[in-house]
């Protein structure tokens, strides 16, 4: 659930703080952001009004819907859309309101869609489809990031509540990927009233640390596989063995020292793997770093092929911006090509060559190793991943036994 806090007891002190700060900075005051010019007879918005507008903007999130559109609020408050937008931004910046995530998310499963998914993809044991609402009219990057993060939080909560369907047995080995879906599954599992009672489990990190983040940048955590192993370990009643990977860039000797080394893998590879799916697009860690003028040094050795891949992906998207297709995706940070069949041989070869260049430098589970996993549990949502998820579900190589996704993505998969 999302709790909306109106910081009324702070309004008068905030007035003084904001005024003092603007005075120090030589700012002309609130008129540039909160005056309602554009409609005759209206003055500047008060702090109470700005707080009300901001709360109205995000109130629909309580019901799992997208934020109220700026256009709708402009009509309701009889102000220009630009004034409304600036009022919302300044209300959060000045500490007049805040959004606090509390308790468990409201999750509505859609059994009719779940049955259709199981009929369409017969290799699945189980399917979870969580209802989400359209994001149309909320196109700003930050808003979409928040909505997408909340969708993944719901998926994680639903997946964590279905551990009985994972078919875990004593001494099983569970691999963990990175990203939001896996993080929220592990986080939600920690809140369950009953601990998992399976004995002798091994929990394995399938990826090195790439400092993955939530898209809205609101979680002060790196959503890497090592963290997920540690979190999930606290959900198990009996002693479990944790295997971590840490650094993302591989050298032969470093890989051999981890669970991903040939010797360790051959002796005891995962029976299960809880993983997500990403696409090389806005919000993805690799995409954001490739676009950055100062990328994270931890990715220095792969930044050039990543930049070439991002350029190629942007070019393909420019030719055909279909909402459900992005040419490069990843599972456990292992990049793969999402083939649509109508790309030129030149573009296809360039994409594949750069994917290979990135993958060979990452300390990740390989495609061949993923094929060894007996049951892949996939938690992934948002429409832009639909083609990538479909390709994985249709592939005979990947033993995907369970999927947890949102209703809009499920419709695209069908």
Would you write up a description of this structure?
The chain has helices at about 10-25, 30-35, 45-60, 70-75, 80-95, 110-120, 140-160, 180-190, 225-235, 250-255, 260-265, 285-290, 305-320, 345-360, 365-370, 385-395, 405-414, and strands spanning about 1-5, 95-100, 125-130, 175, 200-205, 240-245, 270-275, 275-280, 330, 335, 375-380, 400-405. With about 425 residues, the chain is an alpha/beta fold. The strands form three sheets. Strands 3-12-11-7-4-5-6 form a seven-stranded parallel beta sheet. It is globular.
How many helical elements?
17
Radius of gyration: 23 Å
Helix content: 40-55%
Biggest sheet details = 7 strands, parallel
Compressed to H and E, one letter per element, the order equals: EHHHHHEHEHEHEHEHHEEHHEEHHEHEH
Shape: globular
Helix-strand layout with pairing:
Layout lengths: L1 E5 L4 H15 L5 H4 L12 H12 L11 H8 L3 H13 L3 E5 L9 H10 L5 E5 L10 H20 L12 E4 L3 H11 L11 E4 L19 H9 L7 E3 L8 H5 L5 H6 L4 E4 L1 E3 L5 H7 L11 H17 L8 E4 L2 E4 L7 H15 L7 H6 L2 E5 L6 H9 L5 E7 H7 L1
Parallel strand pairs: 3-12, 4-5, 4-7, 5-6, 7-11, 11-12
Antiparallel strand pairs: 1-2, 8-9, 9-10
Helix pairs in contact: 3-5, 4-5, 7-8, 8-9, 12-13, 13-14, 16-17
């Amino acid at each position: 659930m999302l709790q909306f806090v109106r910081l009324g007891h702070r309004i008068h002190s905030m007035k003084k703080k904001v005024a003092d700060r603007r005075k120090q900075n030589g700012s002309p005051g609130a008129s540039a952001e909160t005056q309602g010019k554009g409609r005759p007879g209206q003055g500047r918005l008060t702090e109470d009004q700005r707080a009300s507008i901001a709360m109205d903007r995000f109130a629909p999130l309580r019901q799992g819907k997208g934020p109220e559109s700026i256009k709708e609020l402009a009509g309701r408050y009889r102000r220009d859309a630009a004034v409304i937008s600036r009022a919302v931004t300044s209300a959060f910046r000045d500490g007049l309101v805040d959004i606090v995530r509390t308790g468990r998310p409201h999750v509505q499963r859609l059994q009719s869609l779940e049955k259709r998914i199981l009929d369409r993809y017969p290799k699945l044991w189980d399917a979870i489809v969580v209802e989400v609402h359209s994001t149309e009219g909320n196109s700003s990057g930050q808003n979409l990031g928040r909505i997408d993060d909340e969708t993944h939080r719901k998926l994680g909560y639903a997946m964590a509540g279905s551990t009985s369907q994972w078919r875990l047995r004593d001494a099983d080995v569970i691999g963990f990927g990175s990203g939001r879906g896996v993080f929220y599954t592990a986080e939600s599992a920690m809140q369950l009233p009953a601990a998992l009672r399976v004995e002798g489990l091994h929990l394995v990190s399938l990826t090195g640390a790439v400092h993955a983040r939530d898209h809205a940048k609101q979680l002060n955590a790196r959503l890497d596989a090592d963290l997920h192993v540690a979190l999930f370990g606290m959900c198990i009643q009996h002693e479990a063995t944790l295997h971590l990977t840490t650094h993302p860039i591989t050298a032969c000797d470093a890989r051999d020292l981890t669970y991903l080394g040939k010797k360790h893998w051959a002796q005891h590879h995962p029976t299960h793997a809880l993983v997500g799916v990403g696409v090389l697009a806005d919000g993805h860690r690799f995409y954001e770093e490739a676009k950055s003028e100062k990328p994270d040094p931890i990715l220095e050795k792969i930044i050039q092929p990543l930049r070439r891949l991002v350029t190629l992906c942007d070019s393909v998207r420019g030719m055909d911006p279909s909402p459900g297709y992005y040419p490069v995706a990843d599972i456990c940070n292992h990049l793969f090509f999402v083939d649509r069949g109508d790309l030129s041989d030149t573009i296809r070869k360039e994409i594949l060559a750069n994917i290979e260049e990135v993958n060979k430098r990452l300390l990740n589970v390989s495609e061949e190793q993923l094929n060894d996993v007996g049951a892949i549990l996939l938690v992934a949502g948002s429409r832009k991943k639909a083609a990538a998820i479909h390709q994985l579900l249709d592939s005979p190589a990947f033993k995907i036994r369970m999927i947890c996704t949102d209703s809009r993505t499920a419709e695209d998969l069908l």
